[in-house]
Amino acid sequence: MHVKHPFERKTSFKMRFSSLHPHDKENKEQRRFWWRLLFSLLAVILLVIGCYAGLAYWNNRNQVVASGHKVDGSPVALKVNARSALVIDASTGQILGQKNANQKVGIASQSKMLTAYAVLQAIKKGDYDWNTPVKVTQSSDWSDKDNAMYAHLEVHNGETLTVKELFDAMFTTSANDASLALADFAKKKSETQQEFLQRWAKKLGLTNSDWYNAAGQVNDDAFDYRVKSASATAENQATPKDLAVLAYQIVSADPDVRKYYDKVGLVYRPNANEAATKIKLTEGGKFDQEIKGKLNNPNNLTVEGLKTGSTPSSGGGLTGLIKDQNGHEFITVVSGAGKYTDSKERYQVTLDAVNQVLNEQQPITVAKNTKVSGQTKNAWSKTGRVQLVAKEARTYWVKRATKVSSLSFAHVARQNSQSLSDDETVRWLSPELKASYLPTVSKEVHDLPLTNQEMMEQTTRWGYYSHWLFKW
């Protein structure tokens, strides 16, 4: 018989929790919605700010916009009566006409220009000055040699001349002893004269040249300066382009070379002795007396210098500095212009080369203070804008058929620069021009330098940020 326990429960004990009130559940969902919306808005705001900052950054970069097609300023193919020829603008290094300009030829006394350049650099550096005395050595004393064969001064072993006297003698009379004595003086004690010449040729970037002695003599006629490891017929050689590079650097370093053909006589004083003063007829004097009147010169070009040099193998040669009636200067190089004994032909061919350039090309000059790039935005200027103009004049040569107005430059839409003075260069612009330049002439020489039209007031840093953000 089953007896029911008096305390026995019919069901087991369980804890029960009632569910949230429907109203509370709705509030939670609403909070989630607003949080999602807030995060979405923040993401959108950050995205907008990022996009704006990106656009501001992009639009505030220095902006130079190309303008149109390039006009033709390529070199003229010279048709002169010479083996090789070259004409360049003496100011910018633009190659205006050429014929076999990369063909290596014997350069004879044109070699003296390399010693001249080395001396100019040493004077600039302060190693010595124009009045420093230089002793003529036994090797550089050529006073006993035939002057018709080996041009020289009347100066002897142990006597002295100043650097300036020897320098002038190299250019005005092509004196071999002057160039040899100067090269011996200028070279390092540890190097030969050939090594001295090779070192300076390398510094100048004369990559297609050979050097043996400072006078430019054929090796067998160099006497004490003969290079024993070379053949008897070895001679200094260079391309017309290398000679033009050398002449360009000399003209840039020493403006006085323009006056050498004005000198009829070279005056020099061995040992600085007034009583021993000597005078020698210059190449400029010979040109004026014997050659100038015989030349066909329809454009009245002026021959200002620079250096002659001829050999039997290469014929008449001349590295010249020529000026036209409008003041444009040209550096010219001709080789193989008639026989090496013909003094007139090398000058005639030089004038013919320049005349052909003038007949086929025209100069376009951008004057100083010319507005080239319009109003330019600049966040560093107090106004946020500046007017850029040409700081210096530049001349560019183009084909005769070209309209002057067709030469253009890139448009500078924005230039962020703290250079706000009117005497500072802000940037350089290349012309839209198909042209060639001497390889060692920097772009800053032939590109157009831009500056502020007037002195501008610089804004504060907050002003800069304001312009940067709001004046695209």
Task: Please characterize this protein's 3D structure.
The protein is of the alpha+beta class and 472 residues long. The protein has two domains: 63-73 and 364-470; 81-360, Beta-lactamase. Helix content is 30%, strand content 21%. It has ten helices and 23 strands. Helix 2 (112-125) packs antiparallel against helix 3 and helix 2 runs parallel beside helix 6. It is elongated, with a radius of gyration of 38 Å. It starts with 21 loop residues before the first helix and ends with a helix. The mean pLDDT is 91. The chain crosses the membrane at residues 33-58. This is D-alanyl-D-alanine carboxypeptidase (DacC).
Estimate the mean pLDDT confidence. 91
CATH class of the largest domain: Alpha Beta
What is the topology, as strand order, of the major beta sheet?
A: 3-5-4-15-14-13
Which shape, going by the Cα principal axes?
elongated
Overall number of structural domains: 2
The CATH homologous superfamily of the largest domain is named DD-peptidase/beta-lactamase superfamily
Count of DSSP H/I helices: 10
According to CATH, the fold-level topology of the largest domain is Beta-lactamase
What's the architecture of the largest domain in CATH terms?
A: 3-Layer(aba) Sandwich
Q: What is the terminal-to-terminal distance? A: 104 Å
Portion in helices? 25-40%
